[in-house]
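Weekly modeling sync, notes
Attendees: S.R. (lead), two postdocs, one rotation student

Agenda item 3: backlog of single-chain predictions. S.R. asked that every request posted to the team notebook include the full sequence so nobody has to chase files. The rotation student volunteered to paste the first one in as an example of the format we agreed on. Action items at the bottom.

Example entry:
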Amino acid sequence: MILLPALLFIVWGEPGRCLEENGGFTFDGDIRHFAVATDTVYVATAETLYQLSHDLTLVQSLSQRGILKGGYQTDDAQFSRVSETDERNATFSVNMLLPFVENETLISCGVIECGYCEVLDLKNISNVQYMEHIQVGSTRRSSASIGFLVNVEEKTTETYILTAIQQYEDKSTKSSCFSESEAVKLINTDNKQHGSIFSYISEFSSYSIKRPTGSAEFVDGFQISSTIYLFSNLPSSDTSNRVRLIWLEGKTNKAETLRSLRGATLSISDGGKGSRLLASSLIPGGPPVLWSGVFSVDGGPTDTELLLFDISPPLTGDTDADPDFCSVCSPDRIRSPPKILKPKAVLLRQNSMTSVLAVRQKAWMVFFIGTGDGQLIKLAVDKNYHTTCPRVLYRASDDRQVFPKMHLDQVDLKHVYLPFQNQMKRVPVSKCSTYTNVQDCWSAQDPYCVWCGTKRSCTFEDDCQDSDWLSIPDDSQQKMVSYKVVKDSTGQITLNIQTHLSVGQKARYNFACQFSASSSELCSRDGLPPQFPQCTCTLSKSTLPAGGLDVTVKIKVGTTQLSKVLKLSNCSDIRGPLTSVLCRQCIGAGCSWSEKGCSWANQAVGNDSVCQKMESGGKFSRPEISSITPSVVSFYGRNHAVLSGHNLSDVTRVRIQADMDCTPQESPVWSNTGVKLTFHIPSADNKGVVKVCVLLPDGSCHGNATITYRSSPSCTHIVPSSTWISGKRKITLMGSHLEFVEGVMHSRSGTEVRLSRNRNNQSLIYDTPAAEKGISTSTVFLKVANETLACLPMTYYPEPEFTSFTSTRTGDDVRITIQKKADKLEMTIAELEVWGVEEEKKHPCIMVTKETSNETDFFICEIQRTANANFQQLMIKYGDKTVTLNISSSLHLYLMLLVLLLIPCIIVAVVIVYRSQQNKLTARMNKRMEALELDIRNDIRQGFVDLQTENADLIENVGAIPFLDYKHFASKIFFPESESLMTSFIKDIGQDVVKVQLDQCCQDLSRLIQDQLFLTSMVHALEEQKSFTIKDKCALASLLTVALHNNLSYLTEVMEALLKALMRQSSNAQPKLLLRRTESTVEKLLTNWMSVCLYGFLRESVGQHLFLMVSALTQQTAKGPVDCVTEKALYTLSEDWLLWQAQDFSSLKLKVLFAVGSEGEVSEPLEVNALSCDSVEQVKEKILSTFKAKFGFPYNSPLRDIHIEYENDGSFVTLEEVDASSEVIGEVTMLNTLKHYKVPDGATIKVLSKKTHPPLSPQRSLKDDENFSGKYFHLIDPDVDEDQRKNPERKKLKLKEVHLTKLLSTKVAVHSFVENLFRSIWGTPHSRVPHAVKYFFDFLDTQADNMKITDPDVLHIWKTNSLPLRFWINIMKNPQFVFDMEKTPQLDSCLSVIAQAFMDSFSLSETQLGKNAPTNKLLYAKDIPKFKQEVKAYYKQIRDQSPITDLEFKEFLQEESKKHENEFNEAAALRELYKFIQRYFTEIEEKLDQNRAPAELTEQLHHVKKSFDGLKSCSWN
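Predicted structure, as returned to the notebook:
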């Protein structure tokens, strides 16, 4: 056995591509096995194992390729996976894939040379938990071996793998790896089981079931309760086959289970010995145990039947006495003949069924059937085994076979996984939404569909919110509403209406009928009231009019109205010849039909099927069908089919009907000679055989012929794939089902091409049509019935160009060599016909060969037995075109010689010119390179100067720190994503001093949540619901914090109880992951609790250092350019936000005057620092920021309400973001800067308010534009070519790496502030940490002791996840939670780098950083080791500090509660909380029952519900 190596190299396979149609996934190889477990699908192909989500989205894939070290026979054999490009010598071929859900593992067994098994993590297949070189199941890739998990009831229930391995006739053939003589074995799944994992040895040695003689092929197996069922085919040499069922009882131990063997033989309907079981599915529900199987009738796969059996196990009879299988196989063992099981019903006969999946839907059984030609058929069967019309849910265009096993999507139970060779589809189980009215919805006879009265649409039942729906009844019916007319002995006539429906509760109690007729009063008043499903009308008159009576019945079922128009007649008056027409008239009047004719429906009433059995045709000669041409068509149908026969003159239509009484299609007759008629074969939904008969005018149908529907034609390749423009080139098209093609067309050439008769299902030949000049590519289309299918592209090239020819004599023959310019047509000798012309007499030239040399094609042909060797002219024919070629003249030779002499002269001239140009270009390039080198040198030198001269000249005196008050701080922590919730729970200033009395319903709820059992039960009940999202969990935690803020000690107790429950969860088998994310209510509760308890420490000890660091970062960023559009800055800590493309800039000191009043007076000048590259908006921001810093209060107008002017030669120029002078590149406009307006150092700027000094043109902020970043740019040029001469400085080469020193400059400038902040957090003033930290860390220590966790790393990680990660990182990255300020994107990027350094200080792992490491890690790489030592000392000091007593901590919590009393709107929180209780009331109630809560608590919950439900005076807003 091999233990899992510490590190396993996982190779992620190439992801398949998603498919649009029906949703699906294509794999990189053929599917070998697939399995479904809860919300995941696992698929094994030849070289990859896939893990897909339930909607077939790739989660991950695991390569099965690798290196096998050591031979299989050695103990050190070891398989390790490698990447796709690496060499490998082994592939793990999976033969068995078993999800073990209870154990959260996936067992994967198969072959690497010999047997090999792995145990994978069910949630993450890349995590290989165990591996062993051992045989489990078959070593061959066989569909006749199976394996599945079974439970055996021993002292405890043990789970084993049952393997059933294919047995062969010749028992002497043994695998080189292992014997496969045991047919059935039970194999361990756990190391704790006797013999350890993958062993089949039990405490009573090894037991198995054998097949003493003959072969066995296993098809399927499963377990229900304790009974195990196994199905197999037992073929024999005389082509006969027996289908066997084995029962085993999973009790006591392995040996007893295998010895409990009993057997039966399944006998199919025709008793044929050649039938085989191909696929099977258990029908859920029972007893009895019903099972369906797909059987081949003739032993082959084509003619198949779906049969239904009762396979309930026998309770009596000898065990281990089967003639074919035995566990104790002694020669003198008892053999008793097996029980014979016969089918209860034949459900479907259909060609090439390959797989079946059965499900229960209400009282119906629904079968999903896969076929060998790529269809998924749905068949609904009622409790009496009557079938509805089969419907095609999916139809592949080609003949792809469906895999033998299908599964249902376990998440929504509304999709079927349909596997093909290398593809899987996820097909909906029903198409309810396609039915637009109540009649169509019912007629679909689909147990999944209901007509939803409130939605007025056909939907799934669970999509209809209330119970106002109607659907098909529990048994198969032909009509939604039927009726009969009864006449009793007194002559009283009664009309009985019967609805054939199943309905929801609301619809059942809202059932009514209304009868109306032309007469004044139809029904007598003393009739029975309507009661679902029927209503009665006793006619007030005892006779019906001679012409009949028109009656309208309106039936109301819930909110759905049904209407039926009836024509009532005296049944005894309906007389005449006993024909199907009279029969339909009788049944239509609600009467009863029998052999004697029409009578009152006093007993049973017949239906239309009675009339269909009566054939009319009395007036017409009986037609007969002898043949239909063609009788095999694609599912698109066929135009102009010919039906031959006798007596066809009176035929009006041709009826085409599939099996099982589906709605027939009727096609009109186009021409009729009496012995032949023409009709169009319509398209079909499914493939297969349909029956054909011909209709006479009286409605009777005669004749018995068939049409077979097959897949549509498809193309694979086309030879040749090109043609010349004149067309008529012979093309061979290859593919499948091409015999159904009626015509070929090329795009842009509207003519349809006549097809050659020389064709079959795999190829057809046609001549290409001519094309217009200029067209290069055309698509070939196939015409099939009324459809045009795209095939493959065809390229048109210019005509072939024949240039010359030569002739030489060889004996009696003349050999002609024709020269042609090489082209892409790839013309062959078979496509040419050539004649030599001599005195207008043509001599045929027989083509011999083709050669190619120096871009010339040579075609060689021979003119046999000719006297003349000097032919002056050739005629060449290709396609439909003939060209004449004359022999080359001597003038032509002279011209060629002259050209050859001129070529050297031209080459010499070109070389001289080229050398001259090259020298000029080299000189120009050298000059450019020197300038480039100088630029880069200057950038590097400037970076070095910045780094060495960087001084911490940042202002340390920032004035008063704008702390937010407690309630605003807390609400931002509690509800970071919901502004509306945040404001609704905060009381306004003035309200928070008044204690508001809660109304009665809120008081009741407040008392209820003060009960810990109720509160913890409620939280657990809510968290167990799939619809309760992470967002809901966070909201619940914050609502509880607000509602229980006045009782923090109780809130702490609840938090502790929930944390203990979280630690006990089996999902926390990885304790290091605890508290890492916020995925549960208690984790968010812990965040809120830390924020409440540490607010005082944050404000007194940490707040000032945090604000100074943020201010320092803001000032450092402002020292360099910031791009107004992308928000990137030259001085930053984040490489992603580094403005390395910045152009040169200079610092400016501006004198700013503020307009006072409306008479032009101005204030004293204010000095403001700015940069020449600042945009107008940035200058405004710097002016207002400087104003606030100097005077301690903001300027009286906000930024968007001011405009600025620049004094130039005594007049003021308005500075605008964009104006007529703005630079435009392409369609992108540059924002105006101080440099654009030529504002010098020391310039005067005047600030005016728009309210008192409105600008000439009204301006709004450009940033309000939705496409701001697309329309404008600032410092980073748009990606548009422009003339370099206009702005040579803009085209200087900029390198990002040169500017990385700016990151270091920024770090140096703010480093002291960062260090001060970190040390204020992990510092311990007065040698004591905050109460909450000490208390919670001690709580974690206690829990680790209780859980026997001895690894110190686990405790360190718990503490780090709960304090630094959960609280301090949140504060550090969101200073706007603590201060009244805005956070810019540049500031956010810098804070993220600092937060990462802070978390790295708490990490236990040592990170090795190289040259490719991210810069945010490298910036603080030297500081981290020092910080780690300080963190260790901090944690040690907390541990060594004397414990805080429960009383001390309780007093601290009471003080915190009192300090912030009445600051939150408790009533609003309680009302929001009740919304959750109302939504999940039933689930909470069930959880209380599970937790054995006292009855008073449940009563109290109901009382709260009653109070809130009856709330009138209590405002909900």
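Discussion: group reviewed the output briefly. Residues 453 and 560 are 5 Å apart (CA to CA).
Action items: rotation student to repeat for the remaining queue; S.R. to check formatting next week.
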